[in-house]
Amino acid sequence: MKILCVTANVAVDRTLAVPGFAAGAVWRAASVTASCGGKGVNVARAVACLGHRATCAGLLAGHGGRLAAGLAQAEGLDAAWTWIEGETRACVIVVGASGETTVINEPGNAVPAGDWNRFVDDVASAADGTEAVCIAGSLPPGCPAGGLAGLIAAAGAGGRPVWVDTSGPVLAEAVAAGAAIKINGPEAETLLGRTVATVADAVDAATEIRHRGAVAAAVTLGGVGAVLVTDDGVWRARPPAIAVVSAVGSGDCFLAGLTTGLLDGRTPVEALRLAVAAGTANALRTAAGTVDTDDVARILRATESGSVS
After folding, report:
1. Can you give the pLDDT at residue 44?
2. Residue 236 — very low, low, confident or very high, per pLDDT cuts 50/70/90?
3. Rounded-to-integer distance, Cα 148 and Cα 111, Å
4. Spatial CA neighbour of 286 closest among 95, 29, 8
5. pTM of the predicted model as reported, rounded to 2 decimal places
6. Of residues 125 and 109, more confidently modeled
7. Which one is catalytic: 13, 201, 252, 295?
8. Hey, what's the torsion of the CAs at 157, 151, 6, 225, to 10 degrees?
9. Whole-number Å distance between alpha carbons of 54 and 240
10. Domains and CATH numbers, the chain
11. Which of 153, 154, 191, 245 has its CA 20 to 30 Å from the CA of residue 99?
12. Is 232 a catalytic residue?
């Protein structure tokens, strides 16, 4: 089984552990790590941790792009990059002593329409021979109108499932394009214009997203859990309470667990349970998009789940 993980807006992530961090002062980091970043890269990283094959696709440029590609290669991540002019962005993640996390994301490298079309073609080629595609993260500046819908269509050629995790105005585009949607509560609130804070709210939100065109919808609520709505029914799952180290990348690990679980032939509720366990396991670590399989197994056993009538 192989999954293509697409990150249109790749970054070099620098994660700094800074106990006691607060704005407006001078701090020294206790540790610093650099990695190839972006939500789709995190999904690929988590897919590999869960024992499956993943290929990264994304736009890279300049010195930052070469650094990102080298970091991905050093991790053993397969990749099919599309190279353009400019400079790949950098993002800074500051993790405090109690798990509170500050993330500063640069907007990204502007992409001319011609380069975007070449990227779509490259994704279509890379998707050939894979069982599913995950498109995750923001789009770079300059992405043409309808660009995400075109990317979804290219990735899903032949009927393979395409899961999308994004936000902002392009989220509605992904829903209308018929992708499967994975988002969190605040993203659902922005899309639908109403509060999404409880399991009941999330079920209503996921159901509405399906009515708007998505083939499936999953909405996550952090420690409250998550819901999944498909043609086959409505399910919810809730993890045990944990001491969070960093929640950055937990949504990406959730998507990796959900996608691999469904492709493995698990029932939707069992795939949702695996997704919740993977997302929760990531929150025990500082490295975004990574899980320990022992943590996943332990959390999975303690995860509550069921159907929603």
Report:
1. 98
2. very high
3. 13
4. 95
5. 0.95
6. 125
7. 252
8. -90
9. 28
10. 2-307 (3.40.1190.20)
11. 191
12. no
